[in-house]
Amino acid sequence: MDSSADSTDNPANQPRIAPLALPEWTPEAFAAMEPMRPPAGSAYDKRKADRKQQVRRPNNALSVMAHYPELAKAFLEFNRHLLYFNTLPGRAIELAVLRVAWLRRSEYEWVQHAAAALEVGLTDEEIDRTAVDSVEGWAPEDALLLRAVDELHHDHRWCDSTWDELAEAFDSRQIMDLLFTVGAYDTLAVAFNCFDLPLDPELEGKGFPGDAEV
């Protein structure tokens, strides 16, 4: 996964809202981030522990949200459910998020979740294939999930046949979680693009696959 994005709108690659340096965080900002503390023993807890061995600072996404603790707290409470207490398995969550990030061409979101996807069992090859406008070669349930994300992006709803397929594969809560996961991470992807949010230093040099049509 090599970086291939070309920031022509902002050639200097400067964030429009700069991540807030940790010494500038208020107590309210620290408190607002608590919902994103992963459950002990989860795949996300492992990733956080691994990251702490490399860096000792919040990622750029949280550091931008630290500018606005009230909004951060409200959104991250919602995000906590979608990421940590979703009724979908972790593999399905990360497939959906990666596909959203690709469709929105949000390199920041894609790179962050490419790292997380490895923790829930996706392979590097599968992760790269989420950045292809096709579902060819995927297992049927994976292909259905990716098609469902694509359809929401392009048509803003699911047609009857897609709904029927989803209803056969997932229960009602899982379908609702899928829908709100796509919506929430679509919002984040657009926000990261609008902010021109740079990759975190430890992830620089990574990005969409080199052969992806960005």
What do you see in this structure?
This protein is mostly helical. The chain has helices at about 25-30, 45-55, 60-65, 70-85, 90-105, 105-120, 125-130, 140-155, 160-170, 170-195. Helix 5 (about 90-105) packs antiparallel against helix 6 (about 105-120), helix 5 runs parallel beside helix 8 (about 140-155) and helix 8 packs antiparallel against helix 9.
Going by helix content, strand content and strand pairing, the class is mainly alpha
Task: Please summarize the sheet with the most strands.
Answer: none
Q: Outline, from the CA principal axes? A: globular
Query: How big a fraction of the residues is strand?
Result: under 5%
Q: How confident is the prediction overall: mean pLDDT?
A: 90
Rg value: 17 Å
Q: Oligomeric status of the shown chains?
A: single chain
Share of helix among residues?
A: 55-70%
- Weakly predicted, low-confidence segments: 1-7
Q: State the distance separating the first and last CA atoms.
A: 13 Å
**Total number of helices:** 10
Query: What sequence of helices (H) and strands (E) makes up the elements?
Result: HHHHHHHHHH
Extended strand count = 0
Task: Describe the structure concisely.
The protein has helices at residues 27-32, 43-54, 60-65, 69-84, 90-103, 107-119, 124-129, 140-155, 160-169, 172-195. The protein is an all-alpha fold.
